[in-house]
Amino acid sequence: MTDEDGPNTKVGRVIEAYGLDGMGATLEAAWTGEAGERTSLRDLADEFNEAVLAAAVRETAGSSLDVEASSTYEALEDGTGSEVTRARRRLEREGVDVDELTADFVTHQAVHTYLTEDRGASLPTDEADRGERKIETIEKLQGRLSAVTESAIASLANADELDRGDYDVLVDVRAVCPNCGTDAPVGEVIRRGGCGCTAEDASTGKN
After folding, report:
1. Within the chain, what is the greatest distance between any pair of CA atoms?
2. CA–CA separation, 92 vs 83, rounded Å?
3. How does pLDDT run across 175-205, given as a tens digit for each residue?
4. pTM value?
5. Which sequence spans correspond to the domains of the chain?
6. CB atoms within 10 A of CB 157
7. CB–CB of 112/120 below 8 Å?
8. Angle between helices 10-17 and 41-61 (to 10 degrees)
9. What letter does residue 107 receive in the DSSP assignment?
10. What 3-state class would DSSP assign to 129?
11. CB-CB contact of 135 with 189 (8 Å)
């Protein structure tokens, strides 16, 4: 249902295609914490996709809604095989093209791209710096572990309990995604806001 013309990002195109007026401002306010506590990008993606589902049903069924957006979306995304089947059938009864609908669902990375590129939004400075502070802490701990290990090796070598004391010590803290298997340095994963979970995205049509 999206159109290649118009907005540059997928979220922007979906907003336009489904007539979700005001959704952009709502997403931005929730992400930046304009009205209070900030909402995570993952939660925003879920809320956005529920709104897309509800709009698709309204478009095909008018006011005779027989679909509850939140529970139907949850079933589609996280349900068992039978739950997914029932959710798809409910939508199909309302005249919704489910494959087209799910292709218009978005990931948290897509929401981030829309907010930063289409809307020029950014987090407050203290929030934006949080990730870098965490990375700095992790790197300091890595350095400390490396120094302690090198000292232990040298001590054992001096006591003739180890053949030599000049081993290279490598400390590499990595994050491995259980869904798609992405294996990357934890600092890189934090800076990117996640792994992208390409295996999951391929199965759901998100990007």
Report:
1. 83
2. 14
3. 998 888 888 888 888 877 787 764 444 444 4
4. 0.62
5. 10-123, 126-192
6. 15
7. no
8. 30
9. -
10. helix
11. no
